[in-house]
């Protein structure tokens, strides 16, 4: 259950990052509200997962999911650049997440 909570928390991190971008510096009401609600839910789920998972594992996986997800959303939805260096960086983050999962109990 902790891993499910952690993955969901990471997905909500992607949501709030995207809507923070769309809020235009918190000047638009709906994207700002979605950002704040997703942030609170993400942090709440992260805290629940941390009851069971080690701090380093939980926090690394949470931020990694958010970083990779935001990277993908940036490319697919916002039209951000796809370069070999950016792809290599994303692959390194993904590799780190897999290793973190494999090394946890």
Automatic annotation (TrEMBL):
GO terms for molecular function: transmembrane transporter activity. The chain crosses the membrane at residues 27-46, 58-79, 85-102. One of its GO terms (biological process) is xenobiotic detoxification by transmembrane export across the plasma membrane. It is found in: Cell membrane. GO terms for cellular component: plasma membrane. It is a multi-pass membrane protein. Signal peptide: none annotated. It holds the Pfam family Multi_Drug_Res. Keywords: Cell membrane, Membrane, Transmembrane, Transmembrane helix, Transport. Gene3D superfamilies: 1.10.3730.20. It comes from the Bacteria. Belongs to the drug/metabolite transporter (DMT) superfamily. Small multidrug resistance (SMR) (TC 2.A.7.1) family. Gdx/SugE subfamily. This is Guanidinium exporter. The lineage of its organism: Bacteria, Pseudomonadati, Pseudomonadota, Alphaproteobacteria, Rhodobacterales.
